[in-house]
């Protein structure tokens, strides 16, 4: 599970701005591995750490650029040097959204497995319906 | 009871930033050391993840409240990055502690006061 978890966290690190990733990425991965190895309830810790990483990526992408811009203005820096291509930012935002949705879906799937009584869907009927439809089409 | 005056430039810190500064107040620590120190201080009731830690560390470093500790202050085999509280960071932490202290005093005095309903 650990290599898979590390790769998942590496993917989350890719969502962070490059300068932040280059400065703290390796350390974040090291802390992530240490935390995962130390905690007894590994699945819950993994979810917590992955959510924490996604939250950090969101903050770095959406909130901190504004602060960096203000600091650059104060320092008299040329702003365009640090501004990424808008398309890249849109792609990153899209990737981040897809990751968040996937993670939420995984969490809901996990919860539905743990507590099947509260699941609104009848899984077997849901699977059976499309099979029946295909066979009747012949 | 009048609240103590707080320096005007100081904005309240986030909980994570408060704990990070507090963890670094007594010694230089690496990232995982900060997390462990916070867990020890709060008896494991508040545990931050690496995302929250480095997001806040970056913010604090940009503000000049935390810096990289020089390598000469630790063993040569240890190539991990250590962080140190700056004098400005200590001033901000002191102001934050005073702010929290004044809130506690104010809250205690208000909770002690029992006003009659139709006064």
Could you name the key traits of this structure?
heterodimer; A: 138 residues; mainly alpha; 6 helices; B: 119 residues; three-stranded antiparallel β-sheet; 8% strand; elongated; disordered N terminus
Q: What would a concise description of this structure say?
A:
The complex is a heterodimer of chains A (138) and B (119). Chain A contains 6 helices and no strands.
Largest sheet of chain B: 3 strands, antiparallel
Q: Which radius of gyration of chain B do the C-alpha atoms yield? A: 18 Å
Quaternary structure type: heterodimer
Helix content of chain A: over 70%
Description:
The complex is a heterodimer of chains A (138) and B (119). In chain A, helix 1 (2-14) packs antiparallel against helix 2, helix 1 runs parallel beside helix 3 and helix 3 (42-62) runs antiparallel to helix 5 (86-114). Helix content of chain A is 80%, strand content 0%. Chain A has helices at 2-14, 18-38, 42-62, 64-75, 86-114, 123-137. Chain B has 119 residues and is mostly helical. Chain B is 50% helix and 8% strand. Chain B is built from four helices and three strands. Chain B has helices spanning 15-24, 31-41, 50-62, 87-112, and strands at residues 29-30, 66-68, 82-85. Chain B has a three-stranded antiparallel sheet with strand order 1-3-2. In chain B, helix 1 (15-24) packs across helix 2 (31-41). Chain B is elongated and about 70 Å long. At the A-B interface, helix 2, helix 3 and helix 4 of A face helix 2 and helix 3 of B.
């Amino acid at each position: 599970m650990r290599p898979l978890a590390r790769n998942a966290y590496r993917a989350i690190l890719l969502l962070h701005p490059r300068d932040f990733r280059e400065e703290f990425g390796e350390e974040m991965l090291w802390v992530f591995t240490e935390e995962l190895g130390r905690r007894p309830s590994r699945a819950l810790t993994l979810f917590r750490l992955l959510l924490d990483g996604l939250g950090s990526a969101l903050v770095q992408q959406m909130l901190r650029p504004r602060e960096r811009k203000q600091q650059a203005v104060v320092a008299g820096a040329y702003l365009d040097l640090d501004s990424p291509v808008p398309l890249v930012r849109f792609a990153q935002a899209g990737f981040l959204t897809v990751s968040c949705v996937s993670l939420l879906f995984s969490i809901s799937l996990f919860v539905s497995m743990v507590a099947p009584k509260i699941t609104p869907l009848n899984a077997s009927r849901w699977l059976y319906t499309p099979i029946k439809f295909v066979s009747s089409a012949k | 009871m009048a609240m103590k005056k707080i320096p005007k430039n100081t904005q309240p810190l986030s909980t994570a930033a408060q704990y990070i500064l507090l963890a670094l107040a007594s010694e230089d620590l690496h990232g995982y050391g900060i997390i462990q120190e916070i867990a020890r201080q709060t008896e494991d009731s508040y545990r931050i993840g690496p995302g929250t830690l480095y997001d806040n560390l970056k913010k604090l470093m940009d503000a000049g409240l935390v810096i990289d500790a020089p390598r000469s202050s630790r063993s040569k085999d240890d190539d991990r990055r250590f962080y140190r509280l700056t004098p400005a960071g200590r001033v901000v932490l002191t102001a934050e502690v005073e702010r929290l202290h004044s809130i506690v005093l104010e809250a205690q005095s208000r909770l002690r006061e029992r006003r009659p309903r139709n006064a």
